[in-house]
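In this notation, each integer encodes one residue's backbone shape. One such record reads:

___
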Amino acid sequence: MEITSKPGNVVTLKQASVMAEKGKYAIGSFSPRYTPVIRAVLKAAQKTQSPFICQISQKELERYGISPREFAEEFYAQMKSEKISVPAVLHLDHTKVFSVIEEAISAGFTSVMIDASEKPLEENIQISREVVRYAHNKGVSVEAELGMIGTTDFIETDHDEELYTNPEEAKRFVDETGVDSLAVSVGTAHGVYMVKEPKIDFDRLEAIRSLTPVHLVLHGGSGVPAWMIERAVQLPEGGISKVNIATDLELALLEALGRKERMTNAELMKLSPEELEVGLQAVEATVVEKISDFLGSKGHAADFGL
């Protein structure tokens, strides 16, 4: 069954990105990974009166044992039970399989990401264009990736190669696909920075921005210093409008629970209510800190006029 009616404050990524660029802040795209943790993300956004994005990737769905519909149902249930009134986006992150995108859109996701970045440029354009055509007909925004964003933990993506985004290719890609947002490879990586230091190639970012007005996305936001994010967001012609944060949330959860190993969604749900609440409070505090001191989106829910 396809979800056709959504709360008025659940918007598309395109709508959220427009407001973020106008307001010179970034919107956090938080990946709770486990369905019970969705509540912590929502509560933090409401507490800070910030727009937010709740996301999960195809690999996370597989790794944690969740379907797109289960994730969406929990998101909408918590939006209602927690009386969330701030602007929200439900986003499907890195996904390579069209059927997963179809399932997510049917379940009520308002934004999807097609990641064909490992393909040659021509093929990436073709695949991304097809997803844009399908999703836009459903009123859903599309994010794509050009260049390759590395990883250290293989949870969101399955490659650790890194290939920086070519600005000229970015212009062509956006012009020929019609994507709403573009994830760019400018030095950050998914996971925990253990060997290399986080960095952002600001010159490359400015070159991309000078050639295309598409909304830009920074993946691998966990562990990046706040000053780097602020500079990336505050580019004169408009910078990063969406920053992905996943690893920091799971690290906060596991540390609060006294655990080192990741769990499946089913395993987390077996915890006692008291133990789970300890973990959720840690995640909520982390999201509040990111919104307040990292993204600059605190208090900007009112910008949307919802």
The mean pLDDT is 90. Residues 13-295 form a domain with the TIM Barrel fold (CATH 3.20.20.70).
